[in-house]
């Protein structure tokens, strides 16, 4: 092989490699680089043609000196695409120039600086966190850094916060992100102009409530679009975060109000009223309950288009909830279950309640339920908070609506049977029913206590349930067959400790005081549909064993009593929406959880040693133990009328109804042949 051939071959390979490399460079490096340069030039031209923004400075409130801080910043290389600059706090009198305000200043730490700030608010390692999302907002507003910055500064100012600095990024092609450093913590937001959405985040370690921020944020940021047919929708939540050693402060923020609805992001949550009376903080909210109600169905119910939702709007309306000092008191969805289960079991246990007293119940619903009893001739209500009654009349009209009751007034408080006292119930009872003998005519048949829950850890609650002079006066205020009814808060659960070792200890003291003061029988029962987080417990105390006879009536007799006693309505519909005979059957005996917790406290009780809820010797009890009542059941219940000479027997442990007579079915005889129908006929009734 000649040298020339070798040289030519190597040269050809070199030239081929060079050509391939050159081509690859042009295709894979030069052209992409050229395109990047062209895109960069176009972006620079766009930025140069964009009007330079003049964002407002955050201003120190009240003429105070800005706090001394060390400002440190480290950014990505965004300078070539920046359209705004950061803004720093200035004084409201003689504000420094922007150039000086932008300087990074390292403060000198001295005792003088500390002394100057001694009167400023101390920030503990805890705080409040508020998240707000708003949809259907005007896109032009969401794309304007200037308008958004002005809104943010106004928001901070009206919330009483101190904004040290903030900066914004205008995104390409759309969207704005802004973040501000507060003396108290931070505020930030981001926008999606094309979708009409903005999300805001505010955290502060200050003591001032952030809840006013919600309505202010709605006013400043929920700008409706002039072209869209949808109104802005706001979703928000409020959380307490951090740590504190202050038990009273901890209890105050862990209330029902901040658990729900405040702490939950939900489709619909509207403040109806928020204010304070002389005695308590009142908050009323409308909410659509998650998993039970939807915003779409609620909106359809407002259209009047003939749909099912529009024809039955009451089924889709928001739930109205009432909080007193942060504690859930009542809600529209649980109104009937709570107030009817509070009032009617004890009222129907009394054969003829004429004079009734209510302690508390300022919203008027307890009053409404008592007025449904035709036997009631006089109803005394003692409520310390007159303003709460006025608030309820305006914002909770259904709670005190008696307009459908024949013989009553439109507004329950205007019923001629009602005598309302707006004063301290403790003093009212003690002044009238001390240990001295009381005129019988002034005593009550039934007293209903619809006051604060015993679990609430405040002094006034302890005074209500601690066995003081108020509870001592109650038996003196009742007639011999009188009945006391009280709601005693959240029911015990199976896993609850003994009540004296839990927040239920006031309930134990309350029941013990009733027994010590002469009540011969105390029954407790629970209702699971009252609108609270757990079943709610009630107590009925009978001044004598005789007065509790009707407590164990069969459900049929309770239904008859309801039919005979409850006032009719103008529409002909039943005025009781929840309570009936079968419901009363479920109240006759304590729950398994209630008995279990009781036995943790009193394990030596006969009930605890022999078994709860079931007496295995029941069926061998003598027939003389039966309680006999004259038959009151008419042919409205049964196909043929039961003869008046017959009797209906009922006893605490019985489940079925028994009719006397030779041909009557007697399940007792199946367990004990000595208990024959004839024996029942010959037995003298006990009352």
Automatic annotation (TrEMBL):
Keywords: Autocatalytic cleavage, Decarboxylase, Lyase, Polyamine biosynthesis, Pyruvate, Schiff base, Transferase, Zymogen
Annotated InterPro entries: AdoMetDC_fam_prok, PABS, PABS_CS, S-AdoMet_deCO2ase_core, S-AdoMet_deCOase_pro-enz, SAM-dependent_MTases_sf, Spermi_synthase
Gene3D superfamilies in the record: S-adenosylmethionine decarboxylase, Vaccinia Virus protein VP39
Homology family: Belongs to the spermidine/spermine synthase family.
Necessary cofactors: pyruvate
Protein name: PABS domain-containing protein
Molecular-function annotations in GO: adenosylmethionine decarboxylase activity; transferase activity
NCBIfam families: SAM_DCase_Bsu (TIGR03330)
Sequence ranges assigned to domain PABS in this UniProt record: 254-543
Keyword Transferase part of the UniProt annotation: yes
Keyword Lyase belongs to the record: yes
GO biological process, one term: spermidine biosynthetic process
Active site: 450 (proton acceptor)
Xref: CDD domains: AdoMet_MTases
């Amino acid at each position: 092989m000649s040298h020339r051939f070798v040289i030519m071959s190597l040269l050809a390979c070199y030239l081929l490699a060079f050509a391939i490399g050159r081509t690859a460079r042009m295709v894979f490096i030069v052209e992409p680089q050229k395109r990047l340069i062209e895109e960069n030039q176009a972006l620079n031209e766009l930025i140069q043609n964009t009007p330079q923004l003049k964002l407002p400075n955050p201003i120190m409130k009240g003429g105070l000196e800005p706090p001394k801080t060390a400002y440190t910043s480290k950014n990505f290389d965004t300078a070539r695409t920046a359209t705004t600059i950061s803004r720093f706090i200035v004084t409201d009198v003689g504000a420094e120039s922007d150039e000086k305000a932008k300087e990074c200043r390292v403060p000198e730490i001295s005792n003088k600086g500390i002394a100057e700030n001694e009167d400023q608010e101390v920030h503990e390692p805890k705080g409040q966190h508020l998240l707000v999302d708003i949809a259907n907002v005007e896109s032009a507003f969401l794309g304007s850094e200037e308008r958004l910055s002005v809104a943010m500064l106004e928001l901070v100012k009206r919330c009483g916060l101190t904004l040290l600095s903030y900066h914004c990024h205008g995104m390409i092609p759309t969207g704005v992100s802004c973040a501000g450093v507060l003396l108290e913590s931070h505020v930030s937001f981001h926008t999606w102009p094309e979708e009409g959405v903005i999300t805001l985040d505010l955290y502060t370690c200050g003591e001032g409530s952030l809840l006013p921020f919600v309505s202010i944020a709605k006013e400043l940021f929920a700008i409706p679009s002039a072209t869209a047919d949808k109104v802005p929708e706001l979703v928000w939540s409020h959380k307490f975060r951090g740590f504190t050693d202050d038990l009273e402060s901890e209890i105050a923020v862990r209330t029902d109000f901040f658990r729900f609805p405040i702490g939950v992001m939900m489709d619909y949550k509207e403040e109806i009223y928020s204010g304070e009376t002389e005695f308590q903080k009142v908050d009323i909210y409308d909410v659509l309950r998650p998993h039970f109600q939807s915003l779409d169905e609620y909106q359809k119910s407002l259209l009047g288009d003939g749909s099912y939702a529009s024809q039955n709007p009451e089924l889709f309306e928001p739930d109205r909830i009432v909080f007193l000092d942060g504690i859930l008191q009542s809600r529209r969805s649980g109104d009937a279950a709570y107030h009817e289960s509070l009032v009617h079991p004890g009222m129907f246990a009394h054969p003829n309640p004429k004079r009734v007293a209510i302690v508390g119940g300022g919203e008027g619903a307890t009053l409404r339920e008592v007025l449904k009893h035709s036997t009631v001739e006089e109803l005394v209500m003692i409520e310390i908070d007159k303003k709460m009654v006025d608030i309820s009349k305006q914002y909770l009209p259904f709670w005190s609506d008696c307009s459908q009751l024949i013989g009553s007034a439109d507004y329950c408080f205007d019923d001629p049977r009602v005598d309302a006292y707006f004063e301290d119930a403790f003093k009212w009872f003690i002044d009238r029913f001390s240990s001295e003998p009381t005129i019988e005519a002034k005593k009550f048949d039934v007293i209903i206590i619809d006051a604060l829950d015993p679990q609430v850890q405040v002094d006034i609650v302890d005074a209500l349930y601690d066995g003081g002079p108020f509870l001592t006066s109650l038996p003196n205020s009742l007639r011999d067959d009188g009945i006391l009814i009280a709601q005693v808060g959240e029911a015990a659960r199976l896993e609850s400790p003994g009540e004296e070792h839990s927040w239920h200890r006031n309930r134990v003291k309350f029941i013990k005081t009733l027994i010590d003061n002469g009540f011969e029988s105390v029954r407790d029962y629970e209702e699971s549909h009252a609108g609270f987080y757990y079943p709610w417990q009630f107590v009925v105390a009978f001044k004598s064993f005789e007065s509790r006879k009707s407590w164990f009536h069969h459900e049929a007799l309770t239904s008859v009593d309801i039919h005979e006693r409850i006032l009719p309505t103008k529409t002909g519909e039943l005025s009781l929406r929840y309570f009936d005979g079968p419901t009363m059957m479920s109240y006759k005996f304590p729950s398994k959880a209630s008995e279990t917790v009781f036995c943790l406290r009193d394990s030596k009780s006969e009930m605890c040693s022999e078994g709860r809820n079931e007496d295995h010797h029941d069926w061998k009890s003598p027939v003389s133990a039966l309680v006999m009542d004259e038959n009151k059941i008419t042919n409205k219940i049964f196909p043929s009328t039961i003869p008046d000479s017959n009797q209906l027997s009922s006893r605490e442990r019985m489940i079925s109804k028994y009719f006397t007579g030779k041909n009557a079915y007697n399940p007792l005889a199946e367990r004990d042949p000595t208990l024959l129908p004839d024996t029942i006929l010959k037995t003298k009734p006990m009352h």
